[in-house]
Amino acid sequence: MGTIVFFYFAGVIVATAALVVALRSPVYSALALLVMFFHVAGLFVTLHAEFLAIIQILVYAGAILVLYLFVVMLLNLKREERFQHQLTVGLFLGCMLFAEAVLLVAKGKTSLGMNLPAPGEFTQLTQGNTESIGELLYSTYLFPFEIASLILLVAMVGAVILTKKGILEAKS
Amino acid sequence: MDVPVSYYLVLSGIVFSIGLVGVLIRRNIIIILLSIELMLNATNINFVAFSSYLGNLSGQVFVFFALTVAAAEVAVGLAIIIALYRHSASINIDDFRLLKW
Question: Do B67 and A132 touch (CB under 8 A)?
Fold first, then answer.
């Protein structure tokens, strides 16, 4: 049962990811990415990461993708040019990278030559996923958490500065 | 967990490769940013799969941080796209070769 669910999610994720790259219109690409985000969230649920599944839908589908659609419709592009002339080189590089990854996984060892550690069980499962992540986030990872807020602040200031008039316009 | 962790690794490898190919072959800057999102999602799948396999929640915390960085990257990236569009009324990557000698 779990295997069937995994293959359903995996199939849809791969198909929509290919559509994102292959479709001509940016709006359709963004909508294909939306379907992919929902299926990645479903995959997270099967992996017992319920908090991240909800965050995935809220942040990616709710905020990031809406931002993309806003920009696509704001720019209102007429001309559509699809692929670079280096199409074959790009495809070849992608296939090579994927083959390399599969080879590393199939060897059963990490790149450092160590075997994977034995699978463990969640010890905090009586508590629920969100509570456990919250405790970890506010104790062990408190400093990176604060740094993340700094990154968001910098991104916000950067976005405002970049979109102000008079920064990048052509000299007249 | 009845699905082996290597299946998740292969899935994430496929999605990452598709994202990489998208960055290399498309001309539209918006699609290139969407392909970067694909690659970030592939790493997220990897993180969560290993977090579930090893029984360690730290992987999920790192996905949380990756989400933060993705949000910041989208905000700045789209701001750059709008600035570029104002500059030359195009978002075709071939039109921006100012830094190319």
Answer: no
Segment A145-157, tens digit of pLDDT: 999 999 999 999 9
Alpha-carbon separation of residue A172 from A166, B98, B99 (angstroms): 11, 18, 21
Distance between CA atoms of A20 and A34, rounded to whole angstroms? 10
Q: CB neighbours of A151 closer than 8 A, spacing ≥ 6? A: B68, B69, B72
Mean pLDDT, residues A7-21 taken together: 93
Q: Taking CB atoms and an 8 Å cutoff, what residues of chain A touch B28? A: 26, 77, 80-81
The residue with tokens 């839908």 is A57
> Side-chain half-sphere of A31: how many Cα atoms within 13 Å?
6
Sort residue B4 into left (φ over 0), alpha (ψ -120 to 50) or beta.
beta
B 13-42 near A (Cβ less than 8 A): 13-22, 24-28, 30-31, 33-35, 37-38, 41
The domain made up of B5-95 has a fold known as Helix Hairpins (1.10.287)
User: Domain A1-77 class?
Assistant: mainly alpha
Distance CA A23, CA A34 (A): 14
Nearest to A163 by CA among A77, A81, A76, A74: A74
Extents of the domains making up chain B: 5-95
Q: Which residue has the higher pLDDT, A71 or A115?
A: A71
Place of tokens 């499962």: A125
ipTM of the complex: 0.90
Are A84 and B25 in contact by the 8 Å Cβ rule? The answer is yes
> Is it the case that residue A25 has pLDDT exceeding 50?
yes
